[in-house]
Amino acid sequence: MIRLKSNIGPIGPIGPILLLIIVSLSFPAESSPAYDLVILNGRVIDPESRSDSIRNIGISNGTIKAIATKKLAGRTVIDARGLVVSPGFIDLHQHGQDDENYRFKAMDGVTTALELEVGTGDIDAWYAQRDQKTLINYGVSAGHLAARMAAMREPVTFLPSGAAAHRAATDAEINEMKQRLEDGLKRGAVAVGFGIQYTPNASRWEILEMFRVAASYGASCHVHMRHAGVKEPSSSVQALEEVISAAAITGAPLHVVHIQSTGGPATPKLLQMISEAKSRNIDVTTECYPYIAGMTDIKSAIFDKGWQEVFDIDYKDLQWAATGERLTKETFDRYRKTGGMVAVFSMTEEVVTAAIKSPVTMIASDGILEKGKGHPRTAGTYSRVLGHYVREQGALSLIEALTKMTLMPARRLERRVPSMKNKGRIRIGADADLTIFDPQTIIDRSTFQEPAKYSEGIRFVIVNGVLVVKDGQLQSGVKPGLPIRAPLQ
Ligand SMILES: [Zn+2]
Description:
It is built from 17 helices and 22 strands.
């Protein structure tokens, strides 16, 4: 009204009334604009503000524009009555980064999938391969493994199995690795990735040198630690001491990957160490996934002599991913020569539950599927936490679980990648990455026998304002995924 009045001087005293009538005629029954997409009547949970209430959300141009109790008008309208509306899930640890994997992630509620543990050796090529071709958002770290393979002049594969897996590096090779990580960080790598257990002869000094590079770019170090399990020396406790020290010495933020599969029975001790380090202002975070088996390449250094003692398991506790068969000494020796993925049943349900409940852990999948083969965590991690651990077990509350899937991973990265400040939250101005699910039915369906099964109960998934899952169905022909990348330098 104030703005109208200033323009109506010459019309006289009845002018304002006439104008009001004209204004109401031109916008009949609707005072707010029509949004691209509107979500009505959902139970909106935002971990940042800790709000949990029935709201309507208006989205335009890929951004949340309105959060209201009043009805909103939209060109597309979703009725979310009875459903939870959450920020889209952010997976900090997803190796599979292709169409097949993105479909399973979307159907598990993931709107951003990042490969931060293994990473890559060529940041520009990695992003170029996915440009405008993906269902969900994607991003990658500069990988120490790749830098090591390149510096040792062997072909850069996913995990090393030759010299880079087994020998110490020269000073010149360490310098080349540092240069390669620095180049990757200048090209916008999200973080620096490490798989120290896959390079057991990487010296502690070599690791410190890599942390120094990460520190100078404000990049978090996503580390698969040097040792697993409880057996001293070379326990996971010692391995955690190494990387917490590296973070304290260099100032690089530390993120320990899959703490429960590395820690095994020592996991509660590792979680305690991380809480204590945090209380001393060392920037340490960690993640876990909700399964009692891990998975890795049988050819990797993890299965060098002595693996049974490290994990306190035997051949029968290994399951060949391609066929689902449990291994024997004979089949182990045969597959070790060819290589391939093997599930390692080394954890107890008690350890997994303790990790999921801990306030310091985020949820991250460590997923990869290849032609439908792999670990069920790829397709089921998020639905399994929400269905099994939240609803069925009551191990943690819904908002606690969602915080571990959205806000905590966004915050982990936002110092280096400022655009992450607009993810993991439901607020005006945030990116419209949203996951809408039925809290009464959400559950994983993928298993070790059948890992490529979509989760149930994820009803709608929105990536940058575009529906990629609608009424529980994956949408075809949409590619709204955008790169998650640090500013170029
Ligand atoms: Zn790992």
